[in-house]
Amino acid sequence: MRRGAGVALLLSLLSVAVECNSVSPPGKPVLLSCRSPEKETFTCWWEPGADGGLPTTHRLYYQREDSEGTYECPDYRSAGRNSCFFDRSRTSIWVNYILTVEASNALGNATSDPLEVDVMYIVQPSAPENVTVLLEEKEESPHLLVRWEPPPDTDTQSGWVTLIYQLRVKRENDDQWEEYTSGKQTHFRMFSLHPGEVYMVQVRCKLDHGYWSEWSNTSYRKVPNYNQKERPFWILVSIFSAFTLIAVMCILIMKRKYVKQCLLPPVPGPKIRGFDAQLLKNGRSEDAVSALIISQGFPPMVAWKDQMEEYLVVFDSDAGPLPDSHKTQKRRKSSIILGGFHLHPEAHCKELTFSQNDREKAGERKEGQAIILKSNKPSSGELLSKVEPPQLLSQKQPCPSINFASEHYTEGTAESPSNHDGKPSVDCSAGNTVGPADSGYVENMREVDERQEDYSRVSGVNGDNVLFLQKETVPLHTSCKDKRNHADCTNQRPRKPHVTVATKVGVRTELIYSGYVETMPSLPTM
Amino acid sequence: MPGSFRSVSVVWVGLVCLLLRSRLARVGAAPICTNGQAGCHVLSLADLFDRVIQHSARMHGISSDLHSEFEQYFLPSKNHIGRVNCHTSTILTPNGKENAQRLAREELTEVILKLLVAWRDPLWHFHQSMDHHHDFNNFSSNKALEMSDMVHELRKGVDKVAEKMQTLGIISNSVSSLASPEALLPPDSAEWRLMKDYDLLYCFRRDSNKVQNYLKILKCRIVPEHGC
Lengths: 526, 228
Known about the structure:
By secondary structure, chain A is of the alpha+beta class. Chain A is built from seven helices and 25 strands.
């Protein structure tokens, strides 16, 4: 009775003690993982459970696939706490290990779940070592050369392990790493560097088909700034070019008129010799016109009427034959210009003037000048007649003024058709003068062949001095007018290129006759 | 005249080329040139080793892929853990670096060949069974076929390497694989028929890794100068 009470008391005390201390059997440990750094040894780690308040020991037991029996971990210390290290003699590749950890304390045990490992598949090397980053400057293309060494415990000589490497690079200011795979090489070159930046490099490796190692320690390298060298040069160049540009601009601005003239030359306006546009602008048209006429050698113009009559004036030279043989049919180049013949009935006959220039220019002839005729037809003969203005003038008093707006002409040997039968003469009154065309054109005189059919066109003779000529019909633009004495047609032919006086001078620019002596359309009333 | 001359010259050149080619072919049949001989286009031993090692690496890769696919779709029961009996377990294979290095070259070569020979038939039948079951997509089926072909090719390659080594005098002529491949087969090799597909893949994955490692060790022992 008393014993029973004592036991009960003891038990209650114990239970109270137990309740106060709350010790318990250990919690179940957990095997975390196993790793082999070089495929020759491996280490396993576990996580202990609750220790239950009592000192708890953990033991690792393993079984092998190829042998019977359960073995205990050979080394609990080398790899730290809660670990088990299997050395080379205990490690077999291609063999399954089944591991369990048992935690035990005074109150009980707890066994972890088994973990099955094959060393072949738990390989994870340590990080590569001695990562060095060098700057190589070869041929102006700087690049980083990264070198490293394999993890120290791996055996790379026997071919037992194959390591592949990976590195990552980052500029100091960047957020993202750039990864590169290096394969089995233990070096790597990086190009396309940013000058003046600091580069950070890390390397890691993998063994066979295992896990990647941890990243190595960061290595730094600063890339020098290459732009620095060239900058002063470019500053100088830019300053110099700026100065040059400013100078050129100043010169251009100062000489802008000249530049303008050079770049945009003024379009030459029509240039009439002797014509002074300024006078016209000043409102003095008469002066302008007179200046023009004088310069051109026109005879002064008298007011003329609308009707312009043109005459062919055929002269008979009294002065006799020319010093040069008229009979010779030398070709001569002579150009006689006949201006417009304007017959002005009201005008004085005496105003028939020739430009003095003409006479002067016809140097070798004293006889005066021949009035033009025509033209270009070589076959057609031309009537050449010489004019003696002063004589003529004296002769023909009542003749209307004939204004010869004639240019200079030059004559070589002249042939006077006057020696022939016809005696062409200028007869103002006859009205058979035909005044060709314009003022101021030059026609080439061809050779006069008096023997040619010049006079075949002569239709009649009036007196000694007048010749009626028959004009040949011309296809283009014929307008025939019936006139008093004869019918003729005035042709309007296409002009030959020559200078025409501007219409403001009042000259009618008309007709060109090519090769024909044309009769006047009408006789002036005299 | 120039046309006919040209055609004649072309014919003549063609004939000359044919003659030369036949000559070259005959030269090709000449005895194997050793390393360092100029003008020789036969592969060196190091090249042969590299080739077979590459081959074995690829084979192991395919077997790993197939095994992981199997694990995804056909989770093995717990019973399989720890006690998978491969039919090649009778072949004594070194289980570590030291063991492999301790083996003689001839023995190591023979182990490799034994393994390869042992897997030829099982892989072929595995491929056949995959075709029949239609459980797998074509991709897996192709892998199985490729794997089976590779074993065959790799075995021939290792034969070549062994032959070359024997020619070079590196190993003695005791390697019996060349003579009769069937002699390599273990006596109870029909065990593989009882293996399930998953076990078969599991075993082959391991064995292909063994072959790869043994070849690497052999190469670095015999021709170490080329990338070990």
